[in-house]
TrEMBL record:
One of its GO terms (cellular component) is plasma membrane. The chain crosses the membrane at residues 16-34, 46-63, 92-110, 122-142. The lineage of its organism: Bacteria, Pseudomonadati, Pseudomonadota, Betaproteobacteria, Burkholderiales. It catalyses: 2 GTP = 3',3'-c-di-GMP + 2 diphosphate. PANTHER family: DIGUANYLATE CYCLASE DGCM-RELATED (PTHR45138:SF9), REGULATORY COMPONENTS OF SENSORY TRANSDUCTION SYSTEM (PTHR45138). Keywords: Membrane, Transmembrane, Transmembrane helix. GO terms for biological process: cell adhesion involved in single-species biofilm formation; negative regulation of bacterial-type flagellum-dependent cell motility. This is diguanylate cyclase. PROSITE patterns: GGDEF.
Length: 328
């Protein structure tokens, strides 16, 4: 606005220059309102109205419908719609069209003030150049905002995906993701005639850990066990928290002896380790191992491994059991 005030004054129209400077009061008012979050919609309306009245005055003073300011009326809907309100932008479109119609009719029937600008072609050059630059700036800002919105959407989707598939406490796969992976492994095993085994792991006497040391220490123990087992699992295995202090290890392309051997290494590693920090209790695991039988539902192998786990519990804990046969 100060730029165009100077241009109009230089081209011999002090009236248009004064209008440009007066419009700055509306811009200042909108900036003041924008500092208060609850008044941001009022700030947008004030800014759009200030720009609209400025442009309508310039159209009135400098050529009517033939004025270079006519194209600038599209700025009002752009300002209004920039706040995310399509309806508000459409209302300003309607207001601009009606205003142009009113100026045209008034010019035809009554007549407008005489144009004082000495060089209208130069005014058109300056005005149209600035308008093109403004549109370019608006498009760049729009694309930037669009890219930021897409980036935030991608982050939100990734967060939702993590929440849907990972356990908050341990960072392992959660029950839903474990069952999804297990079903996918079952389909692969049956399609290519590959072995598939499952280990169900349970921390022994975990309730006593919570009751004696508190739930915060219990959480540390859960994370420690999760990290210890995860370090021994292969990259092709899927290890996750099945619920409470119970974990599930899905071993694709692994027969029962191989799964049992890995389960024993896991049991020994946990028994010989301790969660970091003073006063952390030593814990042990009971593990049940089962092999999937082709043609049976996937829940069946979990039930078999669960029964083997309870056998290990009933026979003294800190053991691996496979179909009821002792391994440790």
């Amino acid at each position: 606005m100060p730029l165009f005030a100077g241009v109009y004054a230089w081209l011999g129209d002090p009236r248009a220059a004064t209008v440009c400077l007066l419009a700055l009061t509306g811009v200042a008012a909108s900036a003041f309102l924008a500092r208060q979050p609850d008044r941001i919609p009022h700030a947008r309306n004030t800014l759009a109205a200030s720009v609209f009245l400025l442009l309508l005055s310039l159209v009135w003073l400098v050529g009517g419908i033939a004025s270079p300011s006519v194209a600038w009326l599209s700025v009002c809907p752009m300002v209004a719609a920039a706040g995310g309100s399509r309806d508000r932008g459409l209302r300003w479109v309607a207001a601009s069209v009606l205003a142009m119609l009113a100026v045209y009719l008034y010019e035809r029937w009554i007549g407008l003030p005489a144009v004082l600008v000495r060089d209208l072609p130069l005014l058109y050059l300056v005005g149209n150049t600035c308008f093109i630059l403004l549109v370019a700036l608006f498009l760049v800002r729009y694309e930037r905002n669009n890219d930021l919105a897409l980036a935030r959407l991608s982050e939100a989707m990734a967060t939702i995906q993590r929440m849907a598939t990972l356990d908050d406490l341990t960072g392992l796969c959660n029950r839903r993701e474990l069952l999804r992976v297990l079903e996918a492994e079952r389909e692969r095993a049956e399609r290519y005639q590959l072995p598939l085994s499952v280990c169900v792991l349970d921390i022994d006497s975990f309730k006593r850990v919570n009751d004696t040391f508190g739930h915060a220490v219990g959480d540390e123990v859960l994370r420690h066990v999760a990290d210890t087992v995860q370090a021994l699992a292969r990259t092709t295995d899927c290890f996750g928290r099945y619920g409470g202090e119970e974990f599930l290890l899905v071993l694709g392309n692994t027969d029962l002896p191989g799964a049992t051997e890995l389960a024993e290494r896991v049991r020994v590693a946990v028994m010989n380790s301790r969660a970091p920090g003073p006063g952390r209790p030593a814990v042990t695991l009971s593990i049940g191992v089962a092999r999937h039988v082709h043609g049976e539902p996937i829940q069946r192998v979990i039930e078999v491994a669960d029964r083997a786990l309870y056998t290990a519990k009933s026979e003294g804990r800190n053991q691996v059991r496979t179909g009821g046969a002792s391994v440790a």
